[in-house]
Design goal:
Blueprint (H helix, E strand, L loop, with lengths): L17 H6 L5 H4 L4 H33 L6 H26 L17 H10 L1 H11 L2 H21 L1 H4 L2 H6 L4 E5 L4 E4 L2 H36 L4 H55 L1 H29 L2 H6 L1 H11 L4 E6 L6 H22 L4 E8 L2 E8 L12 H10 L4 E5 L6 E8 L3
Parallel strand pairs: 3-4
Antiparallel strand pairs: 1-2, 4-5, 5-7, 6-7
Helix pairs in contact: 3-4, 3-7, 3-10, 4-5, 4-6, 7-10, 11-12, 14-15
Length: 448
Amino acid sequence: MATQYGQGYGDGDGPGSPGAEERRHRLPAPLRAPIEARSWREFGYLMLGLPIGIVMFTYAVTMFALGAGLLVTFLGIPVLAAALAGCRGFGVLERARARRLLGLEVADPEPLRMKGHGPMAWMGAMLKSGASWRHLLYAVLRPWAVFAFVVALNFWVYGWALLTYPLWFWLFPMYGGQDGLQLYGDQTHNIYLDNPFEITVTALVGLLFTVATPWIVRALTSVDRLLVHGLLGPSRLATRVVELESDRGVVIDTAAADLRRIERDLHDGAQARLVALAMDLGLAKEKLAEDPRAAARMVDEAHGEVKTALQELRDLARGIHPAVLTDRGLDAALSAVASRCTVPVQVEVDLPARPAPAIEGIAYFTVSELLQNVSKHARATRVTVDVWRVEDRLLLQVVDNGVGGAVASGGSGLAGLAGRLDAVDGILVVDSPVAGPTRITAELPWRG
């Protein structure tokens, strides 16, 4: 596999980079927050949460209490199923609202697993679904929306009202019959915010409230994020099942691709050479009686073809699983790969024992492909390969001083390699700024 190296990859200072984004703003983040669209969207989310939360809570508690009370009869089962189905419907609304206003992407929960058809199968699947009960729990916890609504609204309204007080304090003496906003009052004393100093202090207090409010709102919405993500999305088990199914597909595709490669190498290489060798030996046999010298020359050429075919078969076998890896482990196998690389390679393997054979093979082929990429594209003069163990993980790192710019995206070779590692719960991390150096780290389960 090949990964493109060079200019244009990994540039961290482009138009969409964080640094460029910060330079476009004149105000610091605390002062910018009250007028940012994100703050207003989060505030709108909390404002909508009150009516939606009241409806959800009322529906969930009423339907669940009614269904639980009717469980002494058969009617309780369909009522409970209807309660859970309604909560799942509210869940669809809540995920859409969180996606639109909070930018929170939450996948749909696992679908109902119905055994059979008809209303009874549907009710049984609904009552057995863990996702349905999580939706019910989310609806029961919606009184949180009342608290969040009250806190956000008070901070938001009082902050902006006090901040803009210098613009509207004149309404009190003109239409209210008092000198200004009343701060304290009893039968003998009345304190109004009416002189320039008090008006300025009021505006400064309002500024503090206004600046703090977006962060308070953000803290409140973080609780909603946790609730939506934890209760309205797929469970960890369901997510893990989907990942395993995807990984199984990657493994199957990789195995099929390897079989096609082996078949192609045999057909185009050793097989074609052996067919030509058989034809040459046949001709030599026919000429043996008529022209022994010509026959001997043809046998000598066939002997050279046999050596070439054997070398091709050895290379092919090494590509499937090298014997040195089986016999002597990663240290010797990676040293053999490094000796064939066109760039000087320093190999350091520090392993207390050998990992599982499958993991060992994946680590070997990972390093092999990375060294091939360095040879073809990096224009490096030095490469280091380090392999070590941390707890129950096998880590390997390949560092070169080439031109950099490697990316593990799109259809690149590193993307395919990352997919192979992911199929066995592995991770591939690429750190390759333009002009280098490139540092690629792979992490695999030990499974020794």
